[in-house]
Amino acid sequence: MNAKNDLRDLAIMGAPQAFPETLHVGRPNLGDRAALLERVNDILDRRWFTNNGRYVQEFEQRVADSLGAKHCIATCNGTVALEIVIRALDLKGEVVMPAFTFIATAHALQWQEITPVFADIDPTTHLIDPASIERLITPRTTAILGVHLWGRPCNVEPLERIARRHGLKLLFDAAHAFGCSHQGRMIGSFGEAEVFSFHATKFVNSLEGGAVVTSNDKLARKIRLMKNFGFEGYDSVGYIGTNGKMNEVSAAMGITSLESLDEFILINHANYGVYVDGLANIPGIKLLQLEGNERRNFQYVVVEVDADECPISRDDLMDLLWTENVQARRYFYPGCHRMEPYRSYRRNGNFFLPHTERVAECVLILPTGETVNASAITTICQIIRLGVAHAEEVSRCLRVCSLPMHPKRPEYGIATYEHFGPGLRQQAF
Predict the structure, then answer these.
(1) Are 31 and 259 spatial neighbours (Cβ–Cβ below 8 Å)?
(2) Lowest mean per-residue pLDDT among 174-188, 262-276, 284-298, 339-353
(3) What is the structure's pLDDT at 234?
(4) CATH number 3.40.640.10 is the correct assignment for the domain at 33-259
C-alpha cells in the first residue's frame, strides 16, 4: 500500500497505485473456512447435494429464528425468490416500487408481465417516499413493493396504511437489510413477505442464494411448492412451479456465514467509524448516517458527492479512485426508470422523479468488509481528500488522458496509462 499525502503521490501523476490488489465493493466475507470445509466434506460423504437436504433445512431454521419469523424458504438466488413470491401472491397489472434500486427488483415484475410503476424516494434516506405512492395507484395496482436500502428500513407504517386503504398487497425487497431492525423488530417480519439475497457480495452470503421470509402459513406452503416444480410428494405435482431450490453447499456456506454474522457487523461498524473520521470536513462529501438505536449491518459505505459544494464531480472522483485500484461504485445509476425496457415505456410521461435523479447522480459506494482494514480506508480517504483539494488539476488529467475501458464510464475508450509515467501499470478497467 502506497501513502497518498500529496498531489504528486497520485497514480495519475506517475506515482505507484495505492493498492497492488484491487479493492472491490462487496468482496465476499468468508467466515470460518475450516467449519465450511468440514460441512462440505460431510455433504460429499452423504452424497446429498440438493433437494432439501439437512443443511438447507438448518439454514432455513436459523434464518427464521434469527428474524423472529415462522417460515424461511431458501432459494437459489434472491431474484428467483422475488419472482416466486410475486407469483405466489397472485400479483397482476401494476406494482408501485422505487426506481432507486437494483434492476432485478423491477425485472422480477416485468418478467411476469407486471408493470413496475416507479415512485420517487426520500432524498435524505434514499428510501421510497410514501407521499409519492398515492398518486401512482390506479385500478390496475395490486401491490406496493418497498426496498430497504443500505440496511435502513423503509418507513413501514405509512406503507402499511396505504396498502390497507387501497386493498393492496405489501412486500419488501430486503436484500440489503439482513440483520437489521425497524422499531425494534427484525426486518423479515413485515408485509406479506420479505425477500433476502445471500449473494456473494452480501455481508452474509451463501455463495449464491436467497430466501423468502414470511409468517403466513398458506403463503409459505405455496412458495415451497413453487420453488420445487410444484411437487407435493414423491410423484405428485399440485401446482405450477420452477426450480428455485438452494443446494447443500450454498446452504453450508450460509450457515457458516451466519455463525460469523456478529463479527462481520463489528468489522463493518469499525470500518464505518474510520470512514466517518477520514471523510470529515471535506467540502461536498457527505457520508450517509447509519448510526441510531436500531440494528444495522453497515455493509454499505454510502457517500453523497454534492455537485453544488464539491469542486470535483462524483464521476471524476470515482475515476480517480479506480486509477488507484479502488473500484468504488455508483449505485443505482441511472435508476431503473432510465434503463431498458422501462425508459422506452414512458408510462408516466417522463418519469418525474427529481429526488431519484439527484441521488443517482451523487451516490458513491466505497469498499468495506473483512478484506478492508483501517489503513486501507485511511488511504482511500486521503485519495478523496486530494481529489477534492486539487479538483481542477485532477479533472484535467482525467480528461486529457484517455482512460482504459471502464464498465461504469462507457464514454472512455481502450487505452493505457503509459502517458502517466511508470507508476501506473498498463491495465484494463
Answers:
(1) yes
(2) 339-353
(3) 86
(4) yes
Check whether 423 has a pLDDT greater than 60: no
For residue 350, pLDDT over 60 is answered with no
Separation between Cα atoms, residue 30 and residue 28, nearest integer Å: 6
The CB density around residue 291, as the number of other CB atoms within 10 Å, is 11
Q: How many whole angstroms separate alpha carbon 229 and alpha carbon 317?
A: 48
Alpha carbon distances (Å) from 154 to 28, 142, 200, 339: 26, 19, 24, 24
Of 313, 324, 322, 327, which Cα lies nearest the Cα of 396?
313
Which sign, positive or negative, has the C-alpha torsion 219, 225, 228, 234?
Answer: positive
* Amino acid 287: pLDDT: 97
| pLDDT 10s digits, 210-258 | 999 999 999 999 999 999 999 998 889 988 999 999 999 999 999 999 9
Residue 34 has pLDDT above 50, yes or no: yes
Q: CATH 3.40.640.10 residue ranges in the chain?
A: 33-259
Which of these, 48, 100, 270, 82, lies nearest to 192 by C-alpha position? Answer: 82
Domain with CATH 3.90.1150.10 in the chain: 7-27+261-328+367-420
Cell digits for 301?
459505505
Superfamily grouping for domain 7-27+261-328+367-420: Aspartate Aminotransferase, domain 1 (3.90.1150.10)
Contact criterion met (CB below 8 Å) for 328 and 355: no
In this prediction the pTM is 0.91
> What letter represents residue 32's amino acid?
D
Neighbour-count burial of 233, counting CB atoms closer than 10 A to its CB (0-12 exposed, 13-18 middle, 19+ buried): exposed
What is the rounded distance in angstroms from the CA atom of residue 120 to the CA atom of residue 155? 14
- Residue 149 has phi, psi (to 5 degrees) of -110, 145
